[in-house]
Protein backbone atom coordinates (compact mmCIF):
# COMPACT_ATOMS: atom_id res chain seq x y z
CA UNK A 1 0.00 0.00 0.00
CA UNK A 2 1.13 3.54 -0.67
CA UNK A 3 2.20 5.10 2.66
CA UNK A 4 0.16 8.28 3.24
CA UNK A 5 1.95 10.78 5.48
CA UNK A 6 -1.32 12.02 6.99
CA UNK A 7 -2.33 8.55 8.17
CA UNK A 8 1.19 7.79 9.41
CA UNK A 9 1.23 10.97 11.50
CA UNK A 10 -2.33 10.30 12.70
CA UNK A 11 -1.73 6.75 13.94
CA UNK A 12 1.63 7.62 15.52
CA UNK A 13 0.58 10.83 17.30
CA UNK A 14 -2.88 9.69 18.39
CA UNK A 15 -1.49 6.32 19.48
CA UNK A 16 0.96 8.02 21.82
CA UNK A 17 -1.73 10.39 23.04
CA UNK A 18 -4.20 7.62 23.81
CA UNK A 19 -1.47 5.55 25.44
CA UNK A 20 -0.54 8.45 27.71
CA UNK A 21 -4.21 9.18 28.45
CA UNK A 22 -4.93 5.54 29.30
CA UNK A 23 -1.97 5.35 31.68
CA UNK A 24 -2.89 8.61 33.39
CA UNK A 25 -6.43 7.41 33.99
CA UNK A 26 -5.43 3.99 35.22
CA UNK A 27 -2.44 4.93 37.38
CA UNK A 28 -4.08 7.96 38.99
CA UNK A 29 -7.05 5.79 39.95
CA UNK A 30 -4.60 3.43 41.64
CA UNK A 31 -2.86 6.38 43.38
CA UNK A 32 0.43 5.67 41.59
CA UNK A 33 0.84 9.27 40.40
CA UNK A 34 1.49 12.50 42.32
CA UNK A 35 -1.63 14.53 43.09
CA UNK A 36 -0.04 17.73 41.76
CA UNK A 37 -2.80 19.54 39.84
CA UNK A 38 -0.52 21.18 37.29
CA UNK A 39 1.22 17.90 36.52
CA UNK A 40 -2.12 16.22 35.90
CA UNK A 41 -3.60 18.97 33.75
CA UNK A 42 -0.44 19.46 31.68
CA UNK A 43 -0.10 15.72 31.08
CA UNK A 44 -3.73 15.39 30.00
CA UNK A 45 -3.37 18.50 27.83
CA UNK A 46 -0.35 17.00 26.07
CA UNK A 47 -2.21 13.73 25.54
CA UNK A 48 -5.22 15.53 24.07
CA UNK A 49 -2.95 17.68 21.90
CA UNK A 50 -1.33 14.58 20.43
CA UNK A 51 -4.75 13.02 19.87
CA UNK A 52 -6.31 16.12 18.34
CA UNK A 53 -3.29 16.80 16.15
CA UNK A 54 -3.39 13.22 14.90
CA UNK A 55 -7.12 13.36 14.19
CA UNK A 56 -6.76 16.62 12.28
CA UNK A 57 -3.86 15.17 10.28
CA UNK A 58 -6.06 12.21 9.28
CA UNK A 59 -8.54 14.51 7.55
CA UNK A 60 -5.84 15.37 4.99
CA UNK A 61 -6.22 11.83 3.65
CA UNK A 62 -9.92 12.34 2.87
CA UNK A 63 -10.94 13.17 -0.67
CA UNK A 64 -13.90 15.22 0.61
CA UNK A 65 -13.10 16.29 4.20
CA UNK A 66 -16.35 18.22 4.45
CA UNK A 67 -18.21 14.90 4.30
CA UNK A 68 -16.25 13.32 7.15
CA UNK A 69 -19.24 13.66 9.47
CA UNK A 70 -21.10 11.03 7.44
CA UNK A 71 -18.67 8.34 8.57
CA UNK A 72 -20.06 8.52 12.11
CA UNK A 73 -23.40 7.10 10.96
CA UNK A 74 -21.93 3.74 9.92
CA UNK A 75 -20.77 2.59 13.36
CA UNK A 76 -22.76 -0.66 13.14
CA UNK A 77 -20.65 -1.99 10.26
CA UNK A 78 -17.55 0.20 9.91
CA UNK A 79 -14.49 0.15 12.15
CA UNK A 80 -13.58 3.58 10.75
CA UNK A 81 -16.92 4.91 11.96
CA UNK A 82 -16.48 3.22 15.35
CA UNK A 83 -13.06 4.81 15.66
CA UNK A 84 -14.58 8.24 14.98
CA UNK A 85 -17.33 7.73 17.53
CA UNK A 86 -14.94 6.43 20.19
CA UNK A 87 -12.44 9.23 19.58
CA UNK A 88 -15.12 11.87 20.20
CA UNK A 89 -16.58 10.07 23.20
CA UNK A 90 -13.15 9.83 24.82
CA UNK A 91 -12.98 13.62 25.15
CA UNK A 92 -15.90 13.64 27.59
CA UNK A 93 -14.36 11.62 30.45
CA UNK A 94 -10.88 13.00 29.64
CA UNK A 95 -11.99 16.61 30.14
CA UNK A 96 -13.96 15.63 33.25
CA UNK A 97 -10.91 13.77 34.51
CA UNK A 98 -8.73 16.85 33.94
CA UNK A 99 -11.23 19.10 35.70
CA UNK A 100 -11.53 16.85 38.72
CA UNK A 101 -7.76 16.45 38.98
CA UNK A 102 -7.23 20.22 38.79
CA UNK A 103 -9.93 20.79 41.40
CA UNK A 104 -8.15 18.40 43.73
CA UNK A 105 -11.10 16.05 43.89
CA UNK A 106 -10.34 12.61 45.19
CA UNK A 107 -12.18 9.42 45.85
CA UNK A 108 -14.68 7.75 43.57
CA UNK A 109 -15.32 10.67 41.20
CA UNK A 110 -11.80 11.03 39.86
CA UNK A 111 -11.33 7.26 39.86
CA UNK A 112 -14.45 6.72 37.74
CA UNK A 113 -13.48 9.48 35.32
CA UNK A 114 -9.95 8.11 35.08
CA UNK A 115 -11.04 4.53 34.43
CA UNK A 116 -13.63 5.68 31.85
CA UNK A 117 -10.89 7.65 30.12
CA UNK A 118 -8.64 4.59 30.09
CA UNK A 119 -11.31 2.30 28.66
CA UNK A 120 -12.32 4.68 25.87
CA UNK A 121 -8.67 5.38 24.99
CA UNK A 122 -7.98 1.66 24.65
CA UNK A 123 -11.20 1.14 22.68
CA UNK A 124 -10.27 3.91 20.24
CA UNK A 125 -6.82 2.47 19.55
CA UNK A 126 -8.37 -0.98 19.07
CA UNK A 127 -10.88 0.44 16.57
CA UNK A 128 -8.05 2.12 14.67
CA UNK A 129 -6.18 -1.18 14.46
CA UNK A 130 -9.26 -3.06 13.34
CA UNK A 131 -9.70 -0.70 10.38
CA UNK A 132 -6.68 -2.50 8.93
CA UNK A 133 -7.01 -5.92 10.56
CA UNK A 134 -10.52 -6.33 9.14
CA UNK A 135 -9.34 -5.99 5.53
CA UNK A 136 -9.24 -9.56 4.23
CA UNK A 137 -7.65 -8.67 0.86
CA UNK A 138 -4.46 -7.52 2.65
CA UNK A 139 -2.77 -10.54 4.18
CA UNK A 140 -0.16 -8.53 6.09
CA UNK A 141 -2.93 -6.74 8.00
CA UNK A 142 -5.61 -9.40 8.36
CA UNK A 143 -4.16 -11.04 11.49
CA UNK A 144 -4.14 -10.72 15.28
CA UNK A 145 -0.68 -9.11 15.36
CA UNK A 146 -2.06 -5.83 14.00
CA UNK A 147 -4.35 -4.93 16.95
CA UNK A 148 -1.78 -6.36 19.36
CA UNK A 149 0.89 -4.17 17.79
CA UNK A 150 -1.20 -1.01 17.81
CA UNK A 151 -2.10 -1.47 21.48
CA UNK A 152 1.45 -2.39 22.53
CA UNK A 153 3.04 0.51 20.65
CA UNK A 154 0.46 2.92 22.06
CA UNK A 155 1.21 1.72 25.59
CA UNK A 156 4.95 1.97 24.96
CA UNK A 157 4.95 5.50 23.56
CA UNK A 158 2.51 6.66 26.23
CA UNK A 159 4.70 5.23 28.99
CA UNK A 160 7.82 6.93 27.60
CA UNK A 161 5.94 10.25 27.50
CA UNK A 162 4.67 9.75 31.06
CA UNK A 163 8.13 8.97 32.43
CA UNK A 164 9.50 12.14 30.81
CA UNK A 165 6.63 14.28 32.14
CA UNK A 166 7.10 13.04 35.70
CA UNK A 167 10.79 13.90 35.59
CA UNK A 168 9.98 17.29 34.06
CA UNK A 169 7.93 18.08 37.16
CA UNK A 170 10.60 16.66 39.46
CA UNK A 171 8.38 13.76 40.45
CA UNK A 172 10.63 10.82 39.66
CA UNK A 173 8.84 7.48 40.03
CA UNK A 174 11.08 4.41 39.57
CA UNK A 175 7.99 2.21 39.19
CA UNK A 176 6.87 4.25 36.15
CA UNK A 177 10.33 3.94 34.58
CA UNK A 178 10.19 0.17 35.12
CA UNK A 179 6.72 0.13 33.57
CA UNK A 180 8.00 2.09 30.56
CA UNK A 181 10.95 -0.27 30.11
CA UNK A 182 8.66 -3.30 30.32
CA UNK A 183 6.29 -1.72 27.80
CA UNK A 184 9.17 -1.16 25.38
CA UNK A 185 10.27 -4.79 25.67
CA UNK A 186 6.70 -6.01 25.16
CA UNK A 187 6.12 -3.78 22.12
CA UNK A 188 9.49 -4.82 20.66
CA UNK A 189 8.57 -8.52 20.99
CA UNK A 190 5.14 -7.97 19.43
CA UNK A 191 6.64 -6.04 16.50
CA UNK A 192 9.24 -8.74 15.86
CA UNK A 193 6.51 -11.38 15.86
CA UNK A 194 4.44 -9.28 13.46
CA UNK A 195 7.37 -8.92 11.08
CA UNK A 196 8.03 -12.64 11.32
CA UNK A 197 4.42 -13.29 10.33
CA UNK A 198 4.76 -10.96 7.33
CA UNK A 199 8.00 -12.65 6.24
CA UNK A 200 6.98 -16.28 6.66
CA UNK A 201 3.34 -16.42 5.54
CA UNK A 202 1.50 -15.71 2.32
CA UNK A 203 -2.09 -15.06 1.40
CA UNK A 204 -4.01 -18.14 0.20
CA UNK A 205 -5.07 -16.07 -2.82
CA UNK A 206 -3.19 -16.76 -6.05
CA UNK A 207 -3.60 -15.66 -9.69
CA UNK A 208 -5.42 -18.96 -10.21
CA UNK A 209 -7.92 -18.41 -7.39
CA UNK A 210 -8.32 -14.71 -8.18
CA UNK A 211 -9.25 -15.37 -11.81
CA UNK A 212 -11.10 -18.62 -11.21
CA UNK A 213 -8.95 -20.33 -13.86
CA UNK A 214 -7.03 -22.63 -11.55
CA UNK A 215 -8.60 -25.73 -13.10
CA UNK A 216 -6.94 -24.86 -16.41
CA UNK A 217 -3.42 -24.76 -14.95
CA UNK A 218 -0.90 -22.05 -14.16
CA UNK A 219 -2.16 -18.50 -14.73
CA UNK A 220 0.21 -15.73 -15.78
CA UNK A 221 -0.17 -12.21 -17.05
CA UNK A 222 -0.05 -12.12 -20.86
CA UNK A 223 -0.29 -8.37 -21.35
CA UNK A 224 -0.73 -5.49 -18.94
CA UNK A 225 -4.21 -3.94 -19.07
CA UNK A 226 -2.73 -0.44 -18.95
CA UNK A 227 0.19 1.32 -20.61
CA UNK A 228 1.00 3.12 -17.36
CA UNK A 229 0.24 2.83 -13.65
CA UNK A 230 -3.38 3.44 -12.72
CA UNK A 231 -4.88 4.34 -9.34
CA UNK A 232 -4.97 0.74 -8.12
CA UNK A 233 -1.28 0.17 -8.85
CA UNK A 234 -0.26 3.51 -7.38
CA UNK A 235 -2.21 3.09 -4.14
CA UNK A 236 -2.43 -0.69 -3.66
CA UNK A 237 0.52 -1.95 -5.66
CA UNK A 238 3.21 0.09 -3.93
CA UNK A 239 6.46 -1.88 -3.68
CA UNK A 240 9.49 -1.53 -1.48
CA UNK A 241 12.72 -3.43 -2.13
CA UNK A 242 13.53 -6.11 0.41
CA UNK A 243 16.93 -4.56 1.17
CA UNK A 244 15.32 -1.18 1.87
CA UNK A 245 12.69 -2.76 4.10
CA UNK A 246 15.38 -4.58 6.09
CA UNK A 247 17.35 -1.34 6.53
CA UNK A 248 14.27 0.59 7.65
CA UNK A 249 13.39 -2.16 10.11
CA UNK A 250 16.81 -1.83 11.70
CA UNK A 251 16.35 1.94 11.94
CA UNK A 252 12.89 1.48 13.49
CA UNK A 253 14.23 -0.99 16.04
CA UNK A 254 17.15 1.27 16.98
CA UNK A 255 15.05 4.42 17.36
CA UNK A 256 11.76 3.06 18.68
CA UNK A 257 13.01 0.30 20.97
CA UNK A 258 16.75 0.05 21.66
CA UNK A 259 17.59 3.71 22.31
CA UNK A 260 14.44 4.47 24.38
CA UNK A 261 14.98 1.30 26.41
CA UNK A 262 18.59 2.24 27.22
CA UNK A 263 17.59 5.80 28.10
CA UNK A 264 14.65 4.66 30.23
CA UNK A 265 16.82 2.22 32.18
CA UNK A 266 19.34 5.03 32.59
CA UNK A 267 16.71 7.12 34.41
CA UNK A 268 16.68 4.39 37.06
CA UNK A 269 20.44 4.59 37.54
CA UNK A 270 20.75 8.37 37.79
CA UNK A 271 18.64 11.20 39.16
CA UNK A 272 18.20 14.93 38.84
CA UNK A 273 19.09 16.65 35.58
CA UNK A 274 20.72 13.54 34.10
CA UNK A 275 17.55 11.49 34.54
CA UNK A 276 15.45 14.29 33.02
CA UNK A 277 17.71 14.57 29.96
CA UNK A 278 17.63 10.80 29.39
CA UNK A 279 13.84 10.62 29.68
CA UNK A 280 13.32 13.72 27.52
CA UNK A 281 15.60 12.39 24.80
CA UNK A 282 13.70 9.10 24.70
CA UNK A 283 10.49 10.88 23.64
CA UNK A 284 11.54 12.22 20.20
CA UNK A 285 13.49 9.05 19.48
CA UNK A 286 10.52 6.78 20.11
CA UNK A 287 8.22 9.00 18.05
CA UNK A 288 10.61 9.12 15.08
CA UNK A 289 11.13 5.37 15.33
CA UNK A 290 7.37 4.79 15.31
CA UNK A 291 6.99 7.00 12.24
CA UNK A 292 9.46 4.72 10.44
CA UNK A 293 7.69 1.61 11.75
CA UNK A 294 4.31 2.92 10.66
CA UNK A 295 5.63 3.81 7.18
CA UNK A 296 6.79 0.21 6.83
CA UNK A 297 3.43 -1.05 8.08
CA UNK A 298 1.81 0.47 5.01
CA UNK A 299 4.63 0.00 2.51
CA UNK A 300 4.98 -3.74 3.13
CA UNK A 301 1.25 -4.44 2.75
CA UNK A 302 0.17 -6.01 -0.54
CA UNK A 303 -3.41 -5.93 -1.81
CA UNK A 304 -4.93 -8.97 -3.53
CA UNK A 305 -5.82 -6.79 -6.53
CA UNK A 306 -2.16 -6.86 -7.60
CA UNK A 307 -2.66 -10.51 -8.59
CA UNK A 308 -4.53 -9.20 -11.64
CA UNK A 309 -1.48 -7.15 -12.62
CA UNK A 310 1.20 -9.84 -12.68
CA UNK A 311 1.98 -10.45 -9.00
CA UNK A 312 2.61 -14.11 -8.20
CA UNK A 313 1.80 -13.92 -4.49
CA UNK A 314 0.56 -11.43 -1.91
Structure, explained:
By secondary structure, this protein is mainly α. It has a single domain (5-309), classed as Formate dehydrogenase/DMSO reductase domain (Formate dehydrogenase/DMSO reductase fold, Up-down Bundle), CATH 1.20.1630.10. The protein is built from eleven helices and no strands.
Care to give the gist of this entry?
By secondary structure, the chain is mainly alpha-helical. It has a single domain, classed as Formate dehydrogenase/DMSO reductase domain (Formate dehydrogenase/DMSO reductase fold, Up-down Bundle), CATH 1.20.1630.10.
Sum up the structure in keywords:
68% helix; Formate dehydrogenase/DMSO reductase fold; 11 helices
Write the CATH homologous superfamily. Answer: Formate dehydrogenase/DMSO reductase domain
Low-confidence region ranges? none
CATH arch. level architecture = Up-down Bundle
The number of domains is 1
Largest sheet: none
Any idea of the CATH class?
Mainly Alpha
CATH topology: Formate dehydrogenase/DMSO reductase fold
Strand portion: under 5%
What is the terminal-to-terminal distance? 12 Å
Which structural category do the helix and sheet elements fall into? mainly alpha
Q: Can you give the mean pLDDT?
A: 88
Percent in helix: 55-70%
Radius of gyration: 22 Å
Order of helices and strands: HHHHHHHHHHH
Count of beta strands:
0
The total count of helices amounts to 11
- Mass-distribution shape: globular
Amino acid sequence: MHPALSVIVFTTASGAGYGLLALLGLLSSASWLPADRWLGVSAIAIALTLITGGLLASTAHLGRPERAWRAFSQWRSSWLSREGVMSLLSYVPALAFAGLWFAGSGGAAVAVAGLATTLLAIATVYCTAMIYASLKPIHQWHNAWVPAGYLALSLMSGAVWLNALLLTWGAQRPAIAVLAAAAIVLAWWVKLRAWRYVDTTRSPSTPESATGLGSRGKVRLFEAPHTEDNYLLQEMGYRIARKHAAKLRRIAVALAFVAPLVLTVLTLAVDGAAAFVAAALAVPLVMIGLLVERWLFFAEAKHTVTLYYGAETV
